[in-house]
């Protein structure tokens, strides 16, 4: 009841592999998020967008999972961005330092436009 | 859940007590209760979001580190509503004290990226997000974190 399921799905938009996260990002999310990252990486993704759903719950265990993704993205010379975060979690991501390693956009449309335009330039 | 004006409390003070099993997921009950009270007290949305994160981290720490996921042990959350502030105290029943150095540690993302364990952000987040934070030993022996958020009118 209280262990909210996270639904993770992947879609591709031009140059960007989008990982949609519907639900809460806590310790229970680790395997699903890591599997999705590995899947898009195996498929050769260079630009990855983690698209959150506003108002979902992200805790420090979730932040640790995302630091793991940032670490792998750096290792593979990929680019990472975040979208769909509430103002609160945008602030937390900046406080933690995740924003040093990934651009933050309000929503997936804004992110896709910016990333695809930059990739085409 | 109990809601009472406790003996020795100020006349305008309301105390709500939650006793949660030490199972991850139950921190949501405390988050929702704190959020609901804070909204009724008139806190702004960004302050409520900060409170929810701090309560979540404190209860999660109590479940994982204090009570070591032992579901028979409780995490006690006291929510004290005053005219100008909300006080949340989270107590576990564990015998293992929180390391003082850990409590005052400032984590760093570039260091975390070099380590296998990338966690350890919870206590720092609580300290950053709340107006007052105090870590003590509870009279019963468990760890206690007392967090205060002030209502700015």
Q: What are its keywords?
A:
heterodimer, A: 121 residues, Transcription Regulator spoIIAA, five-stranded mixed sheet, 43% helix, globular, B: 153 residues, alpha+beta, Heat Shock Protein 90, six-stranded antiparallel sheet, 5 helices, 35% helix
Describe this structure in words.
The complex is a heterodimer of chains A (121) and B (153). Chain A has 121 residues and is an alpha/beta fold. Chain A has a single domain, classed as 2-Layer Sandwich (Transcription Regulator spoIIAA), CATH 3.30.750. Chain A is 43% helix and 22% strand. Chain A has helices at residues 30-42, 60-75, 87-96, 108-120, and strands at residues 7-13, 16-22, 47-51, 79-83, 103-105. Chain A has a 5-stranded mixed beta sheet with strand order 1-2-3-4-5, with helices on both faces. The longest helix of chain A is centred in the middle third of the chain and has 16 residues, at 60-75. Chain A is globular, with a radius of gyration of 13 Å. Helices cover 35% and strands 26% of the residues of chain B. Chain B is α+β, with helices and mostly antiparallel strands and 153 residues long. Chain B has a 6-stranded antiparallel beta sheet with strand order 1-2-3-4-6-5, with helices on one face. Chain B has one domain (2-150): Histidine kinase-like ATPase, C-terminal domain (Heat Shock Protein 90), CATH 3.30.565.10. The relative contact order of chain B is 0.19. The A-B interface holds A 1-4, 26-28, 57, 59-61, 63-65, 67-68, 70-71, 74, 86-88, 91-92, 95-98, 100-101 and B 23-29, 31, 46, 49-50, 52-53, 56-57, 60, 107-110, 112-113, 117-122, 125, 128.
The average pLDDT score of chain A comes to 95
Radius of gyration of chain A: 13 Å
CATH-level-2 architecture of chain A: 2-Layer Sandwich
Largest sheet of chain A: 5 strands, mixed
Q: What is the tally of helical segments of chain B?
A: 5
Q: In terms of per-residue confidence, which ranges of chain B show pLDDT below 50 for 5 or more consecutive residues?
A: none
């Amino acid at each position: 009841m209280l262990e909210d399921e996270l639904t993770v799905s992947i879609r591709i938009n031009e140059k960007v592999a989008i990982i949609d996260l519907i639900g809460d990002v806590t310790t229970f999310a680790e395997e699903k998020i890591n599997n999705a990252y590995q899947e898009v990486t195996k498929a050769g993704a260079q630009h990855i967008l983690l698209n959150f759903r506003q108002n979902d719950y992200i805790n420090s265990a979730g932040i640790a999972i995302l630091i793991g993704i940032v670490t792998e993205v750096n290792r593979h010379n990929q680019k990472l961005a975040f979208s769909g975060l509430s103002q609160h979690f945008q602030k937390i991501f900046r406080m933690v330092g995740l924003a040093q390693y990934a651009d933050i956009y309000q929503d997936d449309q804004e992110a896709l436009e910016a990333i695809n335009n930059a990739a085409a330039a | 859940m109990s809601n009472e004006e406790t003996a020795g409390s100020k006349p305008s003070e309301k105390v709500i007590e939650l006793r949660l099993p030490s199972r991850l997921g139950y921190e949501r009950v405390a988050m929702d209760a704190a959020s609901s009270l804070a909204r009724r007290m008139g806190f702004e949305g960004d302050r409520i979001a900060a409170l929810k994160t701090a309560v979540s981290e404190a209860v999660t720490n109590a479940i994982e580190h204090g009570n070591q996921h032992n579901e028979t042990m409780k995490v006690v959350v006291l929510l004290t509503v005053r005219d100008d502030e909300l006080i949340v105290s989270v107590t576990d029943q564990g015998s293992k004290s929180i390391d003082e150095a850990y409590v005052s540690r400032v984590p760093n993302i570039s260091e975390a990226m070099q380590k296998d364990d990338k966690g350890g952000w919870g206590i720092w987040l609580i300290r950053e997000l709340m107006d007052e934070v105090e870590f003590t030993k509870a009279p019963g022996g468990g760890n206690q974190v007392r967090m205060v958020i002030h209502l700015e009118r």
